[in-house]
Amino acid sequence: MQIKNPATEEIIADLEETSATELNVKLEYLREGQIEWSKKSVDERLSCIIQFGVLIQENVDKLAKILTSETGKPLQQSLNEIKGAQNRIDHLKQNATKWLAPEILVNSGNTHEKIVYEPLGVIANISAWNFPYNVGYNVFLYALVAGNSVLYKPSEYASLTGKQFEKYLWQAGIPKNVFQCVIGGGEVGQRILEADVDGYFFTGSHTTGLHIAKSVAHKLVPVQLELGGKDPLYVMEDVKDVKQAAINAAEGAFYNNGQSCCAVERIYVSEKIYDEFVDALVQEVNSYKIGNPASLETFIGPLTRPQQIEILKAQVDDALKQGANLLTGGKKLEGKGYYFEPTVLTHCNHEMKIMKDESFGPIIGIQKVSSDEEASELMADTEYGLTAAVFSSNEERAMEVLNKLNVGTVYWNCCDRVSPNVPWSGRNNSGLGATLSAQGIRAFVQPKSYHSRP
Ligand code: NAD
Predict the structure, then answer these.
(1) Ligand 1: does its nearest atom lie under 6 Å from the Cβ of 185?
(2) Fewer CB atoms inside 10 Å of the end CB: C or N, the chain?
């Protein structure tokens, strides 16, 4: 499998795809290893994860360069991601022992009742490329601490990073027969669906997620899906500072080139501040430095996958055909690399693809609204349900809008944010199940209930 640098289109590595035979050997090996691993205490398992975190932070500069070279993520954002993902490890350190301890519910008289949390066994983690540290850690670290062994398939666009996870987990003391990385694209992923594993934990697109859920349904094993979004932001006229609101909205939409599952994908703005907000947003977007992602100054690098350019072009063309105004950007940059200009479209409506389909790139559609009711209806008009945000100085008014929405996460005066303290979950086409928080670790165990009569 050839790995290309999206900024230069040069081949930077040639990796061997995992064959069907190798996959079976790895799975047998993981099955064996899981038995011993599950007998270790949570603290012993946790100490390997803590050491893994130390090694990653010690090698952060090298790892950030690898991530940037294969995904085109601007170097500063690669550094931010790797340093930021450490919060999952700190959170596990503080809480995992408590969350995985047996729970004694009745311990008096002649009835004793307790719950013991047992690992699932060998789990498969099929992952995405856009934030491989964040979305990888959300799954495989929690699974390992809970006593599972892990078959990890990084995205074909983040395979070099996936191999680094394997290297440093082994170096940190995780046995080789407890974590194994497989290399390949959809075909290799498909083979994992046919294999004997005890749970599927997927991060990626709705299309692939749905295919996975259908394909493995007959096995009756846990399936967890972290999928895409079309996340709305509503800017009310009472924001304290319109310019700052526009800067924050732009960052929510364009950080990581818009390739975040919880990126702001559509903006509704009160008619009372619409012109001021749009002017400030366009000014901010035009100030972004586009170019070589290996430079620490760059904010917008190339897209990771060349296929996305056609999707973005089609969304822009469709919007323009239906009466949108193009205020900046709108096309691929000439020359080498998968660069697409940061693009702002106004005068958008829900007949346009840009307000309904996931863009997953540096483009944003903006629509004017005249009331909270109109904004609420438009925000709810989607098949997705990942996050929604409101910027306002009035908490009660913001919550009135946010409380009604069928999404896993709501943001008041912030957006595009994930924290290990609270569950990360999507509804409808955005997914099934939750990672992070106590619920995130419970996803990797099964409860066994004990009824005893001493
Ligand atoms: P994708 O669905 O194309 O690929 C995801 C993974 O599935 C890859 O490892 C791929 O090789 C594998 N795969 C492809 N076909 C398969 C098959 N038939 N069987 C098994 N595995 C298969 O998604 P992507 O492009 O890597 O990621 C982008 C998407 O992920 C976006 O929609 C984004 O919103 C979403 N995402 C969601 C979250 C979240 O937490 N909700 C986080 C990150 C990304």
Answers:
(1) yes
(2) C
Residues 237 and 311 in one domain: yes
Q: What angle do CA 249, 305, 436 make, to 5 degrees?
A: 55
Total domains present in the chain: 2
Q: Indicate the SS3 state at residue 6.
A: coil
Domain range for 351 is 231-419
Specify the pLDDT at position 152.
98
Question: Of all atoms in ligand 1, which is nearest to the CA of residue 229?
Answer: 34
Residues 6+ apart with CB under 8 A from 220: none
Span 227-268, pLDDT tens digits: 999 999 999 999 999 999 999 999 999 999 999 999 999 999
Our answer to whether residue 261 is catalytic in this structure is yes
Q: If you average pLDDT over residues 126-139, what whole number do you get?
A: 98
Do 13 and 126 have their domain in common? yes
CATH number for 40: 3.40.605.10
pLDDT tier for residue 447 given thresholds of 50, 70 and 90: very high
Both 297 and 184 in one domain: the answer is no
Calculate how far, in angstroms, residue 202's C-alpha sits from the geometric centre of ligand 1: 7
How many angstroms is it from 107 CA to the middle of ligand 1? Answer: 46
Residues 252 and 343 in one domain: yes
Mutate to test the pocket of ligand 1, among 18, 208, 255 (most ligand atoms within 8 A of CB): 208
CA dihedral over 397, 401, 404, 407, signed as positive or negative: negative
Which residues in 369-396 are b (16+ Cβ under 10 Å) and which e?
beebebbbebbeebebbbbbbbbbeeee
Cα 348 to Cα 325: distance, rounded to the nearest angstrom: 8
Whether 242 and 390 share a structural domain: yes
Q: What percent of the chain has pLDDT over 70?
A: 100
Q: Could you read off the pLDDT of 360-411 as tens digits, one per residue? A: 999 999 999 999 999 999 999 999 999 999 999 999 999 999 999 999 999 9
Q: Report CA(40)–ligand 1 centroid distance (Å).
A: 32
Q: Would residue 36 show up in a list of annotated catalytic residues for this protein?
A: no
Ligand 1 atom closest to Cα of residue 184: 11
Report how far residue 275's alpha carbon sits from residue 48's, in angstroms, rounded to the nearest whole number.
Answer: 54
Question: Could you tell me if 265 and 399 lie in one domain?
Answer: yes
Q: Whose CA is nearest to atom 23 of ligand 1?
A: 204
Residue nearest ligand 1's atom 5 by CA? 204
Are residues 190 and 324 located together in one domain of the fold? no
> What is the C-alpha separation between 316 and 330, in angstroms, rounded?
6
Decide whether any atom of ligand 1 lies within 6 Å of the 198 Cβ: no
Task: Give the active site residue among 166, 226, 284, 341.
Answer: 226
| CATH code (residue 328) | 3.40.309.10
> Is any ligand 1 atom within 6 A of the Cβ of residue 135?
yes
Domain identity same for 140 and 21:
yes
Q: How confident is the model at residue 44 (pLDDT cuts 50, 70, 90)?
A: very high
